[in-house]
From TrEMBL:
Name assigned to this protein: Uncharacterized protein
Keyword Transmembrane helix: yes
Source species taxonomy: Bacteria, Bacillati, Bacillota, Clostridia, Lachnospirales
Keyword list, A-Z: Membrane, Transmembrane, Transmembrane helix
Keyword Transmembrane attributed: yes
Transmembrane segments: 20-39, 51-70, 82-102, 114-133
InterPro entries named among the record's database cross-references: DUF6773
């Protein structure tokens, strides 16, 4: 007679399904926010989705940090990976920012200066966040290793 509960394979399958579901919800929520902001440009119109996106992101990051997980391969990010990630991320959001400004201000609006400032600021902020998260994971890993070493 089978025992109650899931076996190890079923638990892993459920965890994978949950992770994929979270990623889908997270991406769709971000897409809805961007579509609403591009349309009307008012954050109030996307406040519910924004709260859900931020809360889900915080819970996910907190869980990863608590578990000592930051990358899929279990290692850390190099400084160059952080720089590249920051540039790509800020570049994508800068393009969106420029599009929204042009939509609101008109095609004759001069946006290059503001988009450049936004790009640099976002890249710096993104790098600082990645670096801080990397250090938090390293500290958590050290604590876990010390705990299991004793």
């Amino acid at each position: 007679m089978k025992g109650k509960g899931l076996d190890e394979r079923q638990r892993q399958a459920a965890a994978r399904t949950g992770a994929v579901s979270f990623y889908v919800m997270f991406i769709l929520c971000a897409a809805v926010i961007l579509i609403k902001l591009a349309g009307k440009g008012r954050l109030e119109d996307a406040s519910g989705e924004t709260v859900i996106l931020i809360a889900g992101g915080i819970v996910y990051l907190a869980g990863c940090i608590k578990s000592g997980i930051w990358t899929r391969n279990g290692g850390g990010m190099t400084v160059w990976q952080m720089v590249l990630g920051s540039i790509v991320c800020s570049g994508l959001f800068s393009v969106l920012f420029a599009y929204i400004i042009v939509q609101k201000a008109g095609e004759n609006a001069v946006v290059a200066k503001y988009v450049a400032i936004f790009f640099v600021g976002a890249a710096i902020l993104c790098f600082i966040c990645l670096y801080a998260l990397e250090k938090a994971v390293e500290m958590r890993k050290r604590k876990q290793e010390e705990k299991y070493f004793e």
